[in-house]
Amino acid sequence: MCELICSAVHQGIFNPRESHITILRGENKTINVCTLCLSCVSSCVTEAITFNGKWLTVDRDSCISCGNCVDECPEGVIYLDNEGKAAVPDFCQGNPSCVEWCPHHAISVQGETE
Ligand code: SF4
Question: Which of 30, 49, 28 shows the shortest CA–CA distance to 40?
């Protein structure tokens, strides 16, 4: 549910591959979400990704589709969208839909980073 709502909100489609949440199934099942390690920010050669203390933003005009941020994200929750631009977790700009839609209330926001 969280993968689907994330892709719907951000890309207008239901596709887990275009989600900022990754559910790993099977023996090592877990859920990968952005931990705000900011590896994407430091790996971007054009400084297209910025962090405002609460969420990440991409300047689409500055993004050159190199994929560095995708490769460097340890959680695997950044992807290039259908225009080749980096899609980074924006936490629905402070009101994450995954938190709202999880029927089991398994996802929460743990405070804000300065
Ligand atoms: Fe920066 Fe775009 Fe490259 Fe990501 S894909 S590192 S946002 S230029």
Answer: 49
Contact by Cβ (8 Å): 89, 55: yes
Q: Which residues pair with 24 in a beta bridge?
A: 30
Query: SS3 for 93?
Result: helix
Q: H or E stretch including 87?
A: strand 86-87
| Token pair recorded at residue 68 | 């560095």
**Alpha-carbon span 109 to 96, nearest angstrom:** 8
pLDDT value at 55 more than 90:
yes
Ligand 1 cavity residues, CB under 6 Å: 43-44, 46, 48-49, 58, 63-69, 86
51 has which bridge partners?
56
Residue nearest to atom 2 of ligand 1 (CA): 63
What is the reported pTM? 0.87
